[in-house]
Amino acid sequence: MFAPVEWFIGIRYIYARRGNHFIAFISLTAIVATALGVAVLLTILSIMNGFEGELRERILGMSAHLEVDTRGAAGADWPAVIAALRARNGVLAAAPYVSRDVLVAQRGVVRAVEVRGIVPSAEAGVTTLDAHMIAGSAASLAAGRYNVVVGAELADQLGLRLGDDLMLLSPQPVVTPAGLVPRLKRFTVSGVFEFGLQEHDGALVLVNIDDAARLFRLGERVDGVRVRLADAGTAPRLKETLARELALPTRDWTDTHRNLFRALGTEKIAMFVILALAIAIAAFNLVSILVVAVTEKRGDVAMLAALGLTRGGIMRVFFVQGGVTGVIGVIGGLALGYLLAVNVGTVVSTLETLLGFHVFSPEVYYISTIPSQPRWPDFVITAVFALALALLAPLYPAWLAARPSPAEGLRHE
């Protein structure tokens, strides 16, 4: 399709000769602009992937991969449900739970929170609670001791410390001679956890499942069973199977946080579109560079036409010049983007040391470093998009170069 002479001339036009460095300079500008656009896009996408992965890890640290609702007739037969779940391949652990919304009161401050009754030994297999305890331990939630483990944010709001009493007000009323009054129970703070998410740290209280059953008068019933899988990605598919086999409502972690991850996906798409404009600008820059090159090489083009090079050959010469320039920029951007995405933590740490400030201060943010997670689909999509622009950009300048006749081109030479 391309003759060797067309490749030779097109590549030769990329760099300077006979002391004329202008074409070489603007070609280098096009390569650098394309490379920077591609690199920035890939780096930002990798950082967004890193934040999404960090958020998913924190959410799944306290949220189960699957939850089977047993609040119906199966509420008292939850051991059979757990046995059926543990018998399946891919299920690492299963634990019962009880959950109710209550009010907590301390020193005149009242907060609405979720009280979750758990079995501490079984919960260790479903969540990473033990790894996020900053005071006390989850093992302190022994049945009958009425201990409670709270989130760090809630503890700060209520001024709670280990050993303090915390009043729980259940919405289930108690009938007394004075009328209906809310059920009250005093618990002792025996631990504090911190996951870095407000829904956990500021609105979750953990108690022993037996203590929760007494508080809410549940008897032997539980609200559901929480399940941890070997691969969280299989949860949506396994959910449908379990719902049919157990004949119980089942939801997975993507259901409970659907809006959050949908917003993150939308934000990533929007960011891709915005940053892709930088690559488009580089492509327009390549068009202008080739137009300048066509004007600069007008005499050379006329001479080539006079020597027998066809209009199609002239078009291919400038297509090679623009295409090779764009491809070099795209390849350089992919390499630079990968290096930045992999080493973004080191780059940011170096800049923080040189400039004397923290991008994410550990005293303010739960995440003190910038996470990055390069994914090959992002690289493939970016490469295809950038290469398409790089190969489309030279078409008009190449057509413009082949349009004049040789006589017209040599008239002013």
Question: Can you put this structure into words, describing what you see?
Answer:
Strand 2 (91-106) and strand 3 form a beta hairpin. The chain is built from 16 helices and ten strands. It folds into two domains: 4-56 and 261-410, no CATH class; 64-252, no CATH class. It has helices spanning 4-12, 22-62, 78-86, 120-126, 152-158, 198-201, 209-216, 235-246, 253-256, 258-296, 298-306, 311-342, 344-355, 376-392, 395-402, 406-410; strands at 66-69, 91-106, 109-118, 133-136, 147-151, 165-176, 179-193, 204-208, 224-229, 250-252. The two termini are 31 Å apart. 54% of the residues lie in helices and 19% in strands. It has a six-stranded mixed barrel with strand order 2-3-8-5-7-6, surrounded by four helices. The model has no long low-confidence stretch (mean pLDDT 80). By secondary structure, the chain is an alpha+beta fold.
Regarding quaternary structure, what we see is single chain
Kindly report the spatial arrangement of strands forming the biggest sheet.
2-3-8-5-7-6
The structural domain count equals 2
Q: Give the termini distance in whole angstroms.
A: 31 Å
- β-strand amount: 15-25%
The secondary structure category is alpha+beta
Supply the number of helical segments.
16
In which range does the helix fraction lie? Answer: 40-55%
Secondary structure: number of strands: 10
pLDDT averaged over residues: 80
Largest β sheet strand count, sense and barrel closure: 6 strands, mixed, barrel
Strand/helix succession: HHEHEEHEEHEEHEHEHEHHHHHHHH
Global Rg:
33 Å
List the uncertain runs. none
Shape: elongated
